[in-house]
């Protein structure tokens, strides 16, 4: 009886440790271990095509990848894809949120429609957009020619592939920014607006001087989430172009995938992933810091 | 209530005891017509032998990825799997993932099909399906302009020029770098070139670069828009929509382009012909695209051997042929029932390719994935400039050096 009591109190005393254990175990096994293992692999030359066991080569894989022009191009492309899609998404998302913030008939329905791209399966989206973009039988060029505009190669040419992919990302993710902002707008107090109107401020002034500053923290949250996601976009690009034509839509994630599962250069693929990891980390830290300084 | 629990427990116990006794094997198949056929036939095998076969079907590149990760981490429970000898054979053999098939009877297989199944003096996989490059063309469009089917590259180019309109591409073939390497190979051979020669990269030779130029000129001038992002899965819908007059690709797609459920072009307007000859003759590729192997790590090798014998048997091969799958077994092509049913164009092109064809359609090496991307860069440059690029020779030289480096890294340089 006594021991049972003891055991019971042991459990009770340590509940705060025991209850989070499953979550901690999950994080360690599914997140921490893979990240650390990737770091470890990045210092090896593990390569399945050679038939050799793995050996530690320290920074040699890093040297090789950093000298690879293809890597630098992919790095730049990861940034340009992210910058292009996230900036357009932010502007469009803000405009949509401001429009939806007014009362009008069918508002609920409009919000529902906007959710649809968000819940679609990325690979299915990719296949559908590929049909849409097909230069010969696709709807996109059909519409262009009907409007009297020249046809485009869309994902078929290295000069238009990144904007074409960004357009898909914009189509899918602008609603998310709009919805986050909408909730931010809804929580703003009405007092500043009332006093501004009494003072005779124009709608334009109200937007720039009141709405935008007040909603900036929300906007930055949306930006962090989107940027991190866009930096590591994989599904849409893989499904639509596989990084092509040539390497012209290859981002870091796609390159790492090809290095690991097509070239079987596991060590060098890990180096690419380490860079992607650091990139996302730095970006997030910067934006979090920016947000903090704005809130103070 | 109580009796219900008892029942559940009894059923569970019964299942458990059956599970404990029953023999099981795990089989990985590809999403390929023959994989589908096997999947449908496996219940017959289970019934006849009492062995439970756990089947998984995967898309081809995912199959490679899955096998590679399972074998490399030595955690695999795979017993039998479908495998692509030219794509992964060397790498799988080198890593010791194939079990040698010393007790299998290979007498019904063509010699060039066994070439890629053999390492040293042992066979490691059973050839399943072969494919060869052919020319698909639109009979009605050729009739309209009064042209005969091209039999050489000069005629091919002239026909493409004549058939090319703003609505229909005169000619199509894969343009997506790495994916194009296999279909370009017959062009390369017919120009007298090669991807590898005596274990060294040879695609910077005069002949091969000339072939790449021709391919680029054809696709750049008469190919569909955006062709550098197109593999067969993009070209086939165009052909089915009637937007392509001629298409060179592997023979496997014949069934799908004459299928009225999939194609807007009536089957009687779709022709199939031998791949056209080049300046140095006509040796299109004929390759073993799929084979089947037993995993070295398998703990049920006897069961696995029994299964592979059944899965690659003569009777199943015949069933495959009747389903329009071009099987590797010689006997499958000689069967009278098969010959009565299968398209004569398919039989004729197979006979030609089996006699004169070349058994490789890509550089045969462990690091083939990367080598294909490197050659693909040269192909794309050629297509983008319609074969006129001034830097093509230099680019080919640079990429050949990179492929040689890969060969050195894997210990295959100069080995053949």
Element string of chain A (H = helix, E = strand): HHHHHHHHHHHHHH
Give the % helix of chain B. 40-55%
Mean pLDDT of chain B: 91
Query: Which CATH class of the largest domain in chain A is shown?
Result: Mainly Alpha
Number of individual domains of chain A: 2
**CATH fold-level label of the largest domain in chain A:** MetI-like fold
Q: Helix tally of chain A? A: 14
Biggest contact: A-B, 30 and 37 residues
Largest sheet of chain A: none
The overall strand count of chain A is: 0
Structure description:
- The complex is a heterodimer of chains A (296) and B (416).
- Chain A is mainly alpha-helical.
- Chain A has helices spanning 2-13, 15-18, 21-42, 60-66, 69-100, 107-119, 122-133, 139-146, 161-186, 191-198, 203-231, 235-240, 252-261, 266-295.
- In chain A, helix 4 (60-66) crosses helix 14, helix 9 (161-186) packs across helix 11 and helix 13 (252-261) packs antiparallel against helix 14 (266-295).
- The mean pLDDT of chain A is 87.
- By secondary structure, chain B is of the alpha+beta class.
- Chain B folds into two domains: 20-130 and 288-351, Periplasmic binding protein-like II (D-Maltodextrin-Binding Protein, domain 2); 132-285 and 359-409, 3-Layer(aba) Sandwich (D-Maltodextrin-Binding Protein, domain 2), CATH 3.40.190.10.
- Helix content of chain B is 50%, strand content 14%.
- Chain B has helices at residues 2-21, 33-49, 60-72, 85-94, 111-115, 139-145, 153-163, 177-190, 206-222, 232-240, 254-257, 301-311, 314-322, 330-334, 336-341, 344-356, 368-384, 392-409, and strands at residues 24-30, 52-58, 80-83, 118-119, 122-123, 126-138, 196-197, 200-201, 246-250, 270-274, 286-294.
- The relative contact order of chain B is 0.17.
- The mean pLDDT of chain B is 91.
What's the SSE blueprint?
The complex is a heterodimer of chains A (296) and B (416).
Chain A: H1 2-13, H2 15-18, H3 21-42, H4 60-66, H5 69-100, H6 107-119, H7 122-133, H8 139-146, H9 161-186, H10 191-198, H11 203-231, H12 235-240, H13 252-261, H14 266-295
Helix pairs in contact in A: 3-14, 4-14, 5-9, 5-11, 6-9, 9-11, 11-14, 13-14
Chain B: H1 2-21, E1 24-30, H2 33-49, E2 52-58, H3 60-72, E3 80-83, H4 85-94, H5 111-115, E4 118-119, E5 122-123, E6 126-138, H6 139-145, H7 153-163, H8 177-190, E7 196-197, E8 200-201, H9 206-222, H10 232-240, E9 246-250, H11 254-257, E10 270-274, E11 286-294, H12 301-311, H13 314-322, H14 330-334, H15 336-341, H16 344-356, H17 368-384, H18 392-409
Parallel strand pairs in B: 1-2, 1-3
Antiparallel strand pairs in B: 3-11, 4-5, 6-9, 6-10, 6-11, 7-8
Helix pairs in contact in B: 8-9, 8-17, 9-17, 17-18
């Amino acid at each position: 009886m006594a021991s049972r009591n003891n055991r019971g109190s042991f459990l009770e005393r340590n509940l705060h440790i025991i209850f989070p254990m499953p979550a901690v175990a999950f994080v360690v096994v599914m997140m921490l271990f893979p990240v650390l293992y990737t770091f470890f692999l990045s210092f090896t030359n593990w390569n399945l095509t050679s038939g050799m066991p793995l050996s530690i080569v320290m920074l040699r894989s890093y040297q090789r990848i950093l000298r690879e022009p293809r890597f630098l191009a992919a790095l730049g492309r990861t940034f340009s894809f992210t910058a292009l899609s996230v900036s357009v998404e932010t502007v469009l998302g803000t405009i949509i949120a401001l429009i939806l913030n007014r009362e009008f008939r069918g508002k609920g329905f409009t919000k529902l429609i906007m959710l649809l791209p968000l819940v679609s399966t990325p690979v299915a989206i990719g296949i559908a957009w590929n049909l849409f973009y097909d230069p010969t039988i696709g709807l996109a060029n059909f519409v262009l020619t009907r409007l009297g505009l020249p046809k485009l190669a869309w994902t078929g040419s290295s000069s238009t592939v990144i904007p074409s992919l960004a357009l898909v990302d914009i189509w899918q993710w602008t609603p998310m920014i709009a919805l986050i902002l909408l909730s931010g707008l809804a929580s703003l107090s009405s007092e500043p607006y009332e006093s501004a109107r009494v003072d005779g401020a124009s709608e334009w002034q109200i937007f720039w001087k009141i709405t935008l500053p007040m909603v900036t923290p929300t906007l930055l949250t949306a930006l962090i989430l989107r940027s991190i996601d866009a930096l590591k976009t994989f599904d849409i690009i893989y499904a639509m172009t596989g990084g092509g034509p040539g390497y012209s839509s290859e981002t870091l994630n796609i390159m790492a995938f090809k290095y690991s599962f097509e070239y079987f250069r596991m060590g060098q693929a890990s180096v690419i992933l380490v860079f992607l990891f650091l990139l996302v980390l730095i970006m997030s830290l910067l934006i979090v810091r920016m947000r903090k300084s704005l809130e103070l | 209530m109580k009796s219900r629990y008892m029942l559940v427990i009894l059923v569970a116990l019964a299942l458990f005891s059956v599970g404990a006794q029953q023999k099981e094997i795990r089989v990985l198949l590809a999403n390929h017509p023959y994989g589908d056929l096997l999947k449908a036939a496996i219940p017959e095998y289970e019934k006849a032998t009492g062995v439970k076969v756990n089947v998984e079907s995967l898309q081809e590149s995912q199959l490679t990825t899955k096998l590679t990760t399972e074998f490399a981490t030595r955690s695999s429970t795979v017993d039998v799997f479908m495998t692509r000898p030219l794509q992964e054979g060397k790498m799988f053999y080198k890593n010791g993932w194939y079990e040698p098939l010393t007790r299998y009877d290979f007498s019904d297989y063509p010699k060039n099909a066994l070439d890629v199944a053999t390492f040293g003096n042992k066979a490691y996989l059973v050839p399943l399906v072969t494919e060869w490059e052919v020319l698909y063309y639109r009979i009605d469009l050729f009739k309209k302009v009064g042209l005969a089917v091209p039999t050489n590259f000069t005629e091919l180019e002239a026909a493409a020029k004549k058939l090319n309109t703003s609505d229909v591409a005169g000619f199509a073939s894969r343009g997506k770098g790495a994916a194009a390497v296999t279909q370009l190979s017959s062009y390369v051979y017919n120009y007298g070139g090669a991807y590898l020669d005596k274990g060294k990269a040879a695609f910077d030779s005069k002949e091969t670069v000339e072939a790449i130029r021709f391919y680029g000129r054809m696709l750049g001038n008469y190919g569909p828009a955006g062709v550098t992002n197109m593999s067969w899965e993009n070209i086939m819908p165009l052909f089915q929509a009637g937007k392509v007059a001629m298409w060179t690709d592997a023979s496997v797609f014949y069934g799908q382009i004459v299928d009225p459920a999939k194609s807007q072009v009536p089957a009687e307007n779709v022709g199939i012909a031998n791949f056209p000859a080049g300046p140095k003759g006509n040796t299109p590729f004929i390759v073993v695209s799929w084979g089947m192997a037993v995993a070295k790590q398998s703990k049920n090798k006897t069961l696995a051997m029994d299964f592979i014998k059944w899965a690659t048997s003569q009777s199943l091969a015949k069933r495959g042929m009747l389903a329009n799958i071009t099987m590797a077994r010689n006997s499958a092509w000689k069967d009278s029932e098969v010959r009565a049913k299968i398209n004569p164009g398919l039989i004729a092109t197979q006979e030609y390719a089996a006699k004169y064809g070349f058994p490789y359609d890509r550089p045969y090496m462990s690091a083939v994935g990367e080598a294909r991307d490197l050659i693909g860069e040269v192909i794309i440059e050629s297509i983008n400039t319609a074969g006129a690029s001034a830097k093509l020779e230099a680019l080919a030289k640079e990429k050949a050096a990179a492929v040689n480096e890969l060969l050195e890294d894997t210990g295959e340089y100069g080995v053949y």
